[in-house]
Design a protein that fits this description.
The chain is of the alpha+beta class. Helices cover 17% and strands 20% of the residues. It starts with a strand and ends in a 6-residue tail after the last strand.
Length: 106
Protein backbone atom coordinates (compact mmCIF):
# COMPACT_ATOMS: atom_id res chain seq x y z
CA UNK A 1 0.00 0.00 0.00
CA UNK A 2 1.29 3.47 -0.83
CA UNK A 3 2.49 5.57 2.08
CA UNK A 4 1.37 9.20 2.32
CA UNK A 5 3.06 11.71 4.62
CA UNK A 6 1.01 14.60 5.95
CA UNK A 7 2.95 17.57 7.32
CA UNK A 8 1.29 20.27 9.38
CA UNK A 9 2.39 23.90 9.33
CA UNK A 10 4.60 23.36 12.40
CA UNK A 11 6.52 20.61 10.60
CA UNK A 12 5.02 17.59 12.39
CA UNK A 13 4.90 14.62 10.00
CA UNK A 14 2.43 11.74 10.06
CA UNK A 15 2.98 8.90 7.63
CA UNK A 16 0.08 6.54 7.00
CA UNK A 17 -0.73 3.78 4.56
CA UNK A 18 -3.21 4.69 1.88
CA UNK A 19 -5.39 2.38 -0.15
CA UNK A 20 -5.37 2.56 -3.94
CA UNK A 21 -8.50 4.30 -5.19
CA UNK A 22 -9.13 6.26 -1.99
CA UNK A 23 -8.37 9.96 -1.98
CA UNK A 24 -5.66 11.70 0.01
CA UNK A 25 -8.49 13.44 1.93
CA UNK A 26 -10.33 10.20 2.74
CA UNK A 27 -7.09 8.69 4.00
CA UNK A 28 -6.42 11.73 6.20
CA UNK A 29 -9.90 11.52 7.73
CA UNK A 30 -9.57 7.77 8.31
CA UNK A 31 -6.30 8.34 10.19
CA UNK A 32 -7.45 11.47 12.09
CA UNK A 33 -4.88 13.72 10.44
CA UNK A 34 -5.40 17.26 11.77
CA UNK A 35 -5.76 20.19 9.39
CA UNK A 36 -7.92 18.43 6.82
CA UNK A 37 -11.54 19.07 7.77
CA UNK A 38 -13.27 18.04 4.53
CA UNK A 39 -16.46 19.93 5.38
CA UNK A 40 -18.10 18.95 2.07
CA UNK A 41 -17.19 15.27 2.41
CA UNK A 42 -15.04 15.22 -0.70
CA UNK A 43 -17.47 16.76 -3.18
CA UNK A 44 -15.03 19.49 -4.30
CA UNK A 45 -17.44 22.06 -2.87
CA UNK A 46 -15.20 23.70 -0.27
CA UNK A 47 -11.48 24.15 0.26
CA UNK A 48 -11.08 22.71 3.76
CA UNK A 49 -8.87 19.88 2.48
CA UNK A 50 -6.38 22.24 0.80
CA UNK A 51 -2.80 20.92 0.75
CA UNK A 52 0.53 21.78 -0.81
CA UNK A 53 1.91 18.87 -2.82
CA UNK A 54 5.63 18.20 -2.52
CA UNK A 55 7.16 19.52 -5.78
CA UNK A 56 8.76 16.12 -6.41
CA UNK A 57 5.23 14.74 -6.94
CA UNK A 58 3.68 17.67 -8.83
CA UNK A 59 3.89 15.99 -12.23
CA UNK A 60 2.56 12.66 -10.93
CA UNK A 61 -0.36 14.30 -9.14
CA UNK A 62 -1.13 16.60 -12.05
CA UNK A 63 -2.84 19.95 -12.30
CA UNK A 64 -6.22 20.78 -10.76
CA UNK A 65 -9.34 20.49 -12.87
CA UNK A 66 -11.30 23.65 -13.70
CA UNK A 67 -13.81 22.87 -10.93
CA UNK A 68 -11.03 22.28 -8.40
CA UNK A 69 -9.28 25.48 -9.46
CA UNK A 70 -12.53 27.38 -8.87
CA UNK A 71 -12.63 26.07 -5.30
CA UNK A 72 -8.95 26.89 -4.75
CA UNK A 73 -9.81 30.49 -5.60
CA UNK A 74 -11.61 30.57 -2.22
CA UNK A 75 -8.72 29.03 -0.26
CA UNK A 76 -6.18 31.04 1.70
CA UNK A 77 -2.47 31.10 0.88
CA UNK A 78 -2.78 29.28 -2.45
CA UNK A 79 0.53 28.34 -4.07
CA UNK A 80 1.56 26.79 -7.36
CA UNK A 81 1.55 23.34 -5.71
CA UNK A 82 -1.89 23.77 -4.10
CA UNK A 83 -4.43 21.00 -4.57
CA UNK A 84 -7.58 19.84 -2.86
CA UNK A 85 -6.76 16.49 -1.28
CA UNK A 86 -10.25 15.20 -2.12
CA UNK A 87 -9.26 15.33 -5.78
CA UNK A 88 -6.04 13.29 -5.51
CA UNK A 89 -6.66 9.56 -5.91
CA UNK A 90 -4.07 7.31 -4.33
CA UNK A 91 -2.28 4.87 -6.61
CA UNK A 92 0.97 2.89 -6.44
CA UNK A 93 3.10 5.53 -8.19
CA UNK A 94 2.18 8.03 -5.44
CA UNK A 95 3.97 5.94 -2.78
CA UNK A 96 5.96 8.42 -0.70
CA UNK A 97 3.72 11.39 -1.52
CA UNK A 98 4.16 14.25 0.93
CA UNK A 99 1.53 16.95 1.39
CA UNK A 100 1.57 19.93 3.74
CA UNK A 101 -1.48 21.64 5.18
CA UNK A 102 -1.56 25.45 5.20
CA UNK A 103 -1.17 27.28 8.50
CA UNK A 104 -4.70 28.68 8.08
CA UNK A 105 -6.14 25.16 8.53
CA UNK A 106 -4.81 24.66 12.06
Amino acid sequence: MPKITYVDSSGTERTVEGKNGMTVMETAIKHNVPGIDADCGGACACATCHVYVDPAFSDKVGKPSAMEQSMLDFAENVKETSRLSCQIKIREDLDGLKVTTPESQH
